[in-house]
Design goal:
The complex is a heterodimer of chains A (about 130) and B (about 350). Chain A has about 130 residues and is an alpha+beta fold. Chain A is built from 4 helices and 9 strands. Chain B is of the alpha+beta class and about 350 residues long. The chains are: A alpha+beta (about 130), B alpha+beta (about 350).
Chain lengths: ~130, ~350
């Protein structure tokens, strides 16, 4: 069974969202997502300062078998990207909630966070 | 409901992630596809290929029939057990399927792809007209395991010592029966190994013995990356009914001699050769970052455009490799359009890997 940490927020497209102390949010892909993808071998990250609408595709993750888009879960601006992931994409399989974060955003509208799924709702969605 | 092979329960026991493949419930991996791939390149791995279609072609007309049906010539099979790779073509010279044919007692055994089973059988039956002493018999009661890798044959013999009688001295592309089993030194990985046809009732116990003997179960995912590194075509990707073998790196499988052998598709291939073949199938090694995938556009400056037919990440070479159909005038470099970016790639002669090692130049 996939690991779904209780302290994170989620979206149906299998990204997780962590709210940081400074109000920015960190985004990665879930354990369920990395498990479905299989061995990850390539990651393409957005540019810092790029702005995205909610649900816009902004990054790419590729496993041996397929390419998959990563979506901005909420509208906002990219403030940091995890460059280390580019040279070590296998971290996505090994540590999806830790070392394998993808990017950090400053939200256009912090109130949007209320619309995200909690761990229970995301788990229910994965079990469907 | 999807069909299941006699090894279905074994796949679940080994945590196989099951997917639909041409109507069969088959394992895509058992955890890490890359680990499975590396097991085959460095030690021994095994694949359930029981979904493949085995047809026995028997009778005194079998040779004449297959000489008409296949682009390669079964007359090359001078010894019992010898195997031949061939395309089965339509009248336009397109590839209906690729297959392996073994010479057997009283005829031949043909192994075709599972995804093309129905149309293959229909074509084979339709072309029986004009032959009287011949029979086609499908053998669904036979399961098949491919055991591949540098230690594959040793591990099979260790697990089943009596197989030595059949396996010892077996040449590449040759097979031998042992009671109702059949051992062939063939495969789809670029490594040494065996493809073993086994009565369904025996197959689960043999698979289990191989697991205990240290042979890594491998899924369809690793099968695809291994065959691509080995430069072996996948039907439906690298060849199809609308592409001739001359444009699919299968020219070597066409037996032009004797000139009087009138195999199906010959006339179309001769016309194509006379007019000049437009495209060739080559290997690509990506020089920038990214992963090549089938259907991406290939741009050859000053020459024209082509298309990736199969692309992936190569676990052995640790970069992206592909097969692509490009204009014959293509030199040693090109660009591949990956999500709108043109990434440079080297054009190489296939295969990429044989017996665990990189073999292409450059």
């Amino acid at each position: 069974m996939a690991n779904v940490p209780a302290d994170l927020k989620y979206v149906a497209s299998h990204e997780w969202i962590r709210v940081e102390a400074d109000g920015t949010v960190t985004i990665g892909i879930t354990d369920f997502a990395q498990e479905s993808l299989g061995d990850v071998v390539f990651v393409e990250l957005p540019e810092v300062d790029a702005e995205f609408e909610a649900e816009a595709d902004c990054a790419v993750v590729e496993s041996v078998k397929a390419a998959s888009d990563i979506y901005a879960p909420l509208a906002g601006k990219i403030v940091a990207v995890n460059e280390d992931l580019v040279d070590a994409p296998e971290k996505v399989n090994e540590d999806p909630y830790g070392e394998a974060w993808f990017f950090r955003m400053e939200l256009a509208n912090p109130a949007d966070l209320d619309a995200l799924l909690d761990a229970d709702a995301y788990t229910a969605l994965c079990e469907d | 409901m999807a069909k299941r092979t006699a090894l279905y329960e074994k796949h679940l026991e080994a945590n196989g992630k099951m997917v639909d493949f041409a109507g069969w419930d088959m394992p895509v991996n058992y955890g890490s596809q890359i680990e499975e791939h590396k097991a085959v390149r460095t030690d021994a791995g095994m694949f359930d290929v029981s979904h493949m279609t085995i047809v026995d072609v028997m009778g005194s007309d079998a040779t004449d029939y297959l000489q008409k049906l296949l682009a390669n010539d079964v007359a090359k099979l001078t010894e019992k057990g010898k195997a031949l790779y061939s395309g089965m073509l339509n009248k336009d010279g397109g590839v209906i399927d690729d297959l392996i044919v073994y010479k057997a007692d009283g005829g031949y055994r043909v192994v075709v792809n599972s995804a093309t089973r129905a149309k293959d059988l229909e074509w084979m039956e339709a072309n029986l007209r004009g032959f009287s002493n011949i029979s086609l018999t499908e053998r669904p009661e036979l399961a098949m395991i491919a055991v591949q890798g540098p230690n594959a044959i040793a591990k099979v013999k260790q697990v089943k010592p009596e197989s030595a009688v059949a396996v010892d001295g077996l040449k590449i592309f040759q097979g031998r029966p042992l009671a109702d089993w059949f051992f062939a030194r063939t495969g789809y990985t670029g490594e040494d190994g065996l493809e073993i046809m086994i009565p369904e009732s025996d197959v689960a116990a043999f698979w289990q013995a191989l697991v205990e003997g240290g042979v890594q179960p491998c899924g369809l995912g690793a099968r695809d990356t291994l065959r691509l590194e080995a430069g072996m075509n996948l039907y439906g990707n690298d060849m199809s009914e609308t592409v001739s073998p001359l444009q699919a790196n299968m020219g070597w499988t066409i037996a032009w001699e004797p000139a009087g052998r009138d195999f199906i598709g010959r006339e179309a291939l001769e016309a194509e050769k006379a007019a000049g073949v437009a495209n060739k199938l080559v290997g690509l090694v990506l020089e920038g970052r990214g992963i090549m995938r089938s259907h991406q556009k290939v741009i050859v400056e000053g020459v024209g455009e082509g298309e990736v037919t199969s692309g992936t990440f190569s676990p052995t070479l640790e970069c992206s490799i592909a097969m692509a159909r490009v204009p014959v005038g293509t030199g040693d470099s090109c660009f591949v359009d990956i999500r709108g970016k043109q990434i440079p790639a080297k054009v190489v002669k296939l295969p990429f890997v044989r017996n665990g090692k990189k073999v292409y130049e450059g």
